C-alpha cells in the first residue's frame, strides 16, 4: 500500500509542478509577445522622429534661404509682369537703344498669342546705327530685366554710309490672368 500512497503523493506535486511550468511558460510567452510589440512601436517612433528631424532641417534650410527666394521671386515677377505693359516695353527699349548708341525708329506690336499661364507679345523693332551698337543692343535684350526672346535679326545698309538698318523680330511675355 505504501507504493500506491507514495506514487499518489508524487503525482500531485508533479502535476502541480507541470501546471506551474505551463503557467510560467504562458506568462513568459505573453511577456515576449508584448516585448516584441513594444520594440516595434519604439522602432516606429524612432523612424517618425528621424522623419521629423529631417523635416525640421529642411524647413530650417528654407527659412534661412527665404530672403534669397523672395529676391528671386521678385526678379521673376519683373521678367513676367501681370499685364502687357507696352509703354514699359517701349521705355526699356528706348533706354537700351540709347545705351547702345543706336536710334529706335519704330516698334510695332503684333497680335498677342495666349499660352497656358502666359501670353506672348510678338513685336518688331526697327533701329539704325552701327555694328557695335547693334551687338550691345542684342546683349542688352538678352540680359534685360523683362523677358524678351529674339527670333530674327535682319541687317541691311542704312541710308547713311556708316549706318545699318536693323530689324529685330522679338517676343515679350506677360502672365495671363
TrEMBL record:
Q: Which Pfam families match?
A: PilO
InterPro entries to which the protein is assigned, alphabetical? PilO, Transl_elong_EF1B/ribsomal_bS6
An annotated GO BP: type IV pilus-dependent motility
Statement: the UniProt record of this protein carries the keyword Iron-sulfur: no
Keywords of the record, alphabetical order, are: Membrane, Transmembrane, Transmembrane helix
Residue stretches spanning the membrane: 6-29
The protein's name in its UniProt record: Type IV pilus assembly protein PilO
Q: Which organism is it from?
A: Anaerobacterium chartisolvens
